[in-house]
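Reference record:
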Amino acid sequence: MYLDFHTHGKLAKYLPFSVPYTQWLFDEAQKAGLTGLCLTEHFNTQQFADIYRYILSASERDGETLLYRGLRIFPGMETDIAEGGHILSLGPAEAILELNARLEPYKQKGSFLPFERLLAVFSEYPGLVGAAHPFREGGHIPELDVRLLQHLDFIDLNGKDVAENQERTEALTYAMGEKLRIPVVGGSDTHQALQYGCIRTRFSKECNTFEALYAMMQNGEYEIEIHPDAAHRVASATLLKRALKTIDAIGGDYVDVLLNENIDALFEKAKQRAVHSPALVV
């Protein structure tokens, strides 16, 4: 089983959920060689619940996972903490949805929960909890109390950070895992399909429960594979994301452009919007 532990189902937090875009992401994930992924969407993204409602409606249940057109999805979420940094949580879809609803009062910057309080909330639900890209600039996870960090189930060796500086990211992340005796697994952190496959975790066999997944992690029944062209994949994905967000900013439909709809008509529509909006320049 080739699994990506850190992925997103939307281009950006502030953009509305798009079924065609999410379909494209999941289809491209399989083309990139993944058999499964952990969908760790930001907890404070627009329409968080709508994403899971759609996936639930379009998937077959297999244990605690969801099979979407053959792609195995382990439900999850990425949550900000007050100290600075992101925490990944994985669990059954209903548990993730309930957790997300409970965190509603803490979704704005300035009201994020401290790590200890967030751990207490997560402990009430089944699943796994991990540190996302712990050594990324602006985060402070490595500085937290070791006694609290030891409650984590895994650490994310993040593809985006590996692409920027593989030697540093691997050295720091593996050292943290060894110190805490916590498994290190690979996640791409992608919001667009080009980043899939920059890093992936190969398990010895398939599984459909979080207990079985964790058992393989603890037993070391996996290997992290970093694509030799990871840096280029991440750089290309970053450019794509910037271009698609720019299309949205000038009034275009980035999903239609991405999926090769009538691009000429879309640009004409954008020009017409610019005529009636002096703030837009085409």
